[in-house]
Every structure is written in C-alpha cells, then in structure tokens.
C-alpha cells in the first residue's frame, strides 16, 4: 500500500497554503485597524498578494497546466480570477485608506481573493500533491521562493502568464521596489 505524501514547510503546497492563511490574517488586520496601522497592514497585504500571485503564475500554474488532467481549464479559471483581483487591488493600491470607498472595496477584494484561494487549494494544489513526489514539491517550493524574491511588490493587471511575468516582471519589480523605498515614512 502506498504511503500518503508527507507535507512539510519545504513543500510548495504547504508554503502556498500558509501564505493563504497570512493573506486572510492581513485582510482581517487591515479591516479591523485604523490610521497608520491600517496603512501598514494594507501595504504588507499588497506586497504579499503581489509576490504570491507572481510566483504562482511563474511556477505553479504552468506545472498544473501541463500535468493535471483538465489542467488547461483549471489554470485558465484561476488566471481569470487573479486578473480580476489584481485590477481591484491596483485600484485600492492607489487609494487612501481613509477614503470612504476603501473598506467596501477592500471587503469585495477579500471575498474574491479568499474564494480564489479556496479554488486553488481544491482544484489545483491538492491535486499536485498526488502528481508530484516530496522531492519535486520541495524543488517547486525553492523555485517559488526564488520567484517571490524578485517579484513585483504591487499589482500589475495583465501579467497573469509566466511569459508576461518574465518579460515585464524584472522592470516592474525594480520600479515597485524603488517606489516602496520612497514611500516609507
């Protein structure tokens, strides 16, 4: 009888699911806080969402597209969700956290992102566990971490494919990281 795969902190699925939990926590912190605490929590949320989605688009989605039965449709659905979320996140990223429309739009984004995360976990991530060995998933985790280290830190709608991320990503990342330095209070 085959032994069930063991997930670890070095497993790509564990890594991404843990990031989904961090994203949920940052949404809650942003919604529940005020003033500078809200601004700080939102900046951390934007950064995590941007690097997380870039890494999924560069590493995980291409593997799922090629490897999973029905992978093409699964990934196309996730990319559509990601584009919609990036568009809303980009709009929020340009707003002041005190704007009366900020919280309603943030809650709309929260619902979209958390629904998207559940779909990724159910239709993509846990199916990857069955398709790849512990060693392969550990290698994917290393690739995701490397992609996140150089990913843009703000949303860029329209860059949902691995190719677009490779072409636009380095310049967008440099601009974003300079912008982050300038914005620090």
Description:
The protein is mostly helical and 185 residues long. The chain has one domain (12-183). 78% of the residues lie in helices and 0% in strands. The protein is built from six helices and no strands. Helix 1 packs antiparallel against helix 4 and helix 2 (35-67) runs antiparallel to helix 6. The longest helix is centred in the first third of the chain and has 33 residues, at 35-67. The chain is elongated. The model is unreliable at 1-7, 161-169 and 173-178 (pLDDT under 50).
Short recap of the structure:
Helices cover 78% and strands 0% of the residues. The chain has 185 residues and is mainly alpha-helical. Helix 3 runs antiparallel to helix 4.
Observed structural traits:
185 residues, mainly alpha, 6 helices, 0% strand
**For the CA atoms, what is the radius of gyration?**
17 Å
Q: How many β-strands, per DSSP?
A: 0
Number of helices: 6
Determine the structural class based on helices, strands and strand pairing.
mainly alpha
State the separation between the terminal residues, measured CA to CA. Answer: 58 Å
Give the SSE string: HHHHHH
Count the domains.
1
Mean pLDDT: 84
Rough shape?
elongated
Main β-sheet description: none
Protein name: Hemerythrin superfamily protein
Pfam families: Hemerythrin
Domain Hemerythrin-like: 12-123
InterPro entries: Hemerythrin-like
């Amino acid at each position: 009888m085959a032994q069930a795969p063991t997930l670890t902190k070095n497993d790509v699925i564990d890594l991404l699911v843990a990031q989904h939990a961090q994203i949920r926590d940052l949404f809650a912190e942003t919604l529940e806080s005020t003033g500078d605490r809200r601004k700080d929590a939102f900046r951390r949320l934007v950064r995590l969402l941007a690097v997380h989605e870039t890494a999924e688009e560069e590493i995980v989605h291409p593997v799922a597209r090629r490897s999973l039965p029905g992978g093409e449709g699964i990934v196309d659905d996730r990319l559509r969700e990601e584009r919609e979320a990036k568009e809303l996140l980009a709009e929020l990223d340009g707003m002041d956290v005190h704007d009366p429309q900020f919280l309603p739009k943030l809650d709309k984004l929260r619902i979209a992102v958390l629904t998207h995360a559940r779909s990724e976990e159910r239709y993509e991530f846990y199916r990857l566990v069955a398709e790849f060995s512990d060693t392969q998933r550990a290698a994917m985790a290393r690739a995701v971490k490397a992609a996140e280290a150089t990913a843009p830190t703000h949303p860029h709608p329209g860059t949902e494919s691995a190719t677009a991320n490779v072409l636009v990503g380095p310049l967008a990342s440099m601009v974003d990281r300079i912008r982050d330095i300038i914005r620090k209070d």
